[in-house]
Each structure stands twice: as C-alpha cells, then as structure tokens.
Amino acid sequence: MTTSSDPLDQPASGRGAVLSMSLCVAMLIASEFMPVSLLTPIADSLNASDGQTGQAVSISGFFAVAASLLVSTAAGRLNRKSVLLTMTGLMLLSLVMIAAAPNFIVLMIARALLGISIGGFWSLSTAVIMRLVPADRVSGSLALMFAGQATAAAFAAPVGSYLGEVIGWRGVFWALVPIVALDLLWQAVALPSLPAQESQSLGSMWRVLRRPYVSRALIAVLFTFSGAFAMFTYLRPFLETVSGVGVQMLSVMLLVLGCAGFIGTFLGGRLTNGHLMALLRYLPLAMAAATLALLGFGHVLSLVAILLAVWGAINTALPISWMGWVTQEVGDAPEAAGGLMVGAIQLAILLGATIGGALLDHVGISATFICSAILLGVAGAIVGSGRALRA
C-alpha cells in the first residue's frame, strides 16, 4: 500500500489545521516585516531616523529569541493548542497597539509583544506539524505552512507600500487586524487538542545544544539570517537612493521579490529531502552574490528586478531547508530543536537589522550590503560539505 506525499491529500481536519497555521504564518511575517516597506513614512511620522525605525524589526527579534527559548518550557504541561491560540492573540493585540501608537516607545512595546508571538508560535510549529500529519507528509506540510510566508513576502511589502500612500501606514496595520481575528477563530475550530507529550525544560534544550552538529548548525543559521536581514531590512532606502525608484516602482520591485518566493517555497519543499546539505551551503552563497550584484547594477532597473527575484526565491527556501534539517537530524527532540532553531533565526534577524542600521546611519548603504554578503559567505563556509551537520 502506498501513501501520497501530497500535504493536501489528508483528512479535512488535518488539512484545515495546517492551513490555519499557514495563514497565521502569513500574518506573522506580514506583521514582522511590514516596517520594511513603510520604513520611511513611519520614521517621518514618529520623528525617528531610518536606522532607528529599523530597530522596530530588531526589537521584535529580541523578544522572539527569548520566547522561542522559554515558551515551550513555561507552557509546561499546557495543551499546545492553547499556547498557539495565545500566541495568535498576542499578535492581534500588538497590531492594534502599532496602528494606534502615539509615539516611538509605544511602537517598540507593541513590537516586543509581536516578538513574543513570533517566537512562541514558530518554536512549536514544526513539532505541531509532526503531530498533525503522518511522517511521510511532514516535509510537504511544512512547505504548505511556509506557503503562508511566501504569500506574505509576495504581497505584504508591495501592498503595504502602496496602501501606505493611500490610507497611511497606520491604516495598513489596522487592515491586518480583522484578518488575524478571523484566523484566531479558525485555529480555535480547526486545531485538535494537542496535550503536551512531555514537559520541556531549559535542560532539555541544553542537552540538544551540546550535540556538536546542532551547535555548528545554529552558528551557520546565525550567519545566514543575519546576512539576509542586514540587507532586507534596508532594501527600501537602497531602492529609493541607489535605484531612484518612486513609490509605484518600489511596490513593483517588492512584488517581484515576493512573488519569486513562491518559486523558493516550491523548490524548498521539493529539494529538502534529497539535496538538503547542498541547499544549506549554496543558497547563502547565491544570496551573497545577488546582494553584491545589486550594488554593482543598482541603477539598472531591469537587472535589479531579476536580482530581487533571485534573492526572494532564496529567502523563502532557506527557512524551509533549515526546518527540514530539524525534522531529519533532530527528530527525536523537535520542540527543543525547534525552539533553538527559531531562537537562532530571530537572534540573527535582530543582529542583522542592528548591524545593518548602524552601517546605514554612519557609513552608507553600500557598507550595509557588503556586510550582508560577507556574513552570507561565512555561512556557506561553515556548512561546507554538510557532514558536520549530520547526527
């Protein structure tokens, strides 16, 4: 008897649960990185510099790191469905606070709450997927969940940039509120009861972290995602100052980058099982090359569009590949490994946004992009042949 690897070829209850998580992922990604497409107007409205406003991305990353390491531990024996619903509720509260923020301090507090939601949801998501679907459908279901990320990457930035001119940046965040509220209700209905299988502790995370191949992988993750977000967080200033685009062309460029994410999601889901180590090594190297090429040809809009498409496809394939690594190499401790992986990714986002913002404010956009490429190159070197990342 054969079984289908299609993640949609499963009972309706399982499919609905995975799809509700996919929508939540889309909203998390849209909420986390919307400031990238609205960086300039948010900065002007709150009397802050572009570099300071970029820290709204890094503050959410800081709290996401803490939540990814602590939520599964703090949840103890709590039902994982309740924990996921709480994380989605925090995202809803955060969006309301951001939309109504009277000053930069309130914005940062709201972003901190969003970070807790991001870290808590992501740290449990891979382990939950492994419980929702049969083992042979985990990779496909992960890709389906990450399709939410690709959707957000495709439409959140360009739509946010365009709508920001029409209804203002606050209106953009208000528009996300009812979508998240509906998803919260959907999760409440679609997710089955998920009793804790075992009580997690910081000790269990430490035992996983002490595995040499795990610690090496997390170092590679730090360099990979810090390199990616040192560039991505400040893409709008680059396109405005180097490429000289206006708001309409900016939206088009961001749409090109985002739509290419669907290609990355498809390829990541297809290739992770058979070519995992090649993806982990060569994707950051290709991203570094695309970043440097943007610096060299940033004034040629046709080439910029092509390079952004390449960058966008890689950007969505990377997290699928690394979560695939968790299921393949640390499948005996998915919650602990998932928390460590999400913590490393969020810490990398924090570091990338912080370093990139400092370079942008004090040196210039070229320094930001060069730093991004260097970090990505180091990531590829750490992965190497991939043998050191295997159990």
Automatic annotation (TrEMBL):
Signal peptide: none annotated. It comes from the Bacteria. It is found in: Cell membrane. Keywords: Cell membrane, Membrane, Transmembrane, Transmembrane helix. It holds the Pfam family MFS_1. One of its GO terms (molecular function) is transmembrane transporter activity. GO terms for cellular component: plasma membrane. It is a multi-pass membrane protein. InterPro entries: MFS, MFS_dom, MFS_Efflux_Transporters, MFS_trans_sf. Residues 17-391 form the Major facilitator superfamily (MFS) profile domain. Its main location: membrane. The chain crosses the membrane at residues 12-33, 53-71, 83-102, 108-130, 142-160, 172-192, 213-235, 247-267, 279-297, 303-325, 337-359, 365-384. This is Purine ribonucleoside efflux pump NepI. It comes from Aquimixticola soesokkakensis. The gene is nepI.
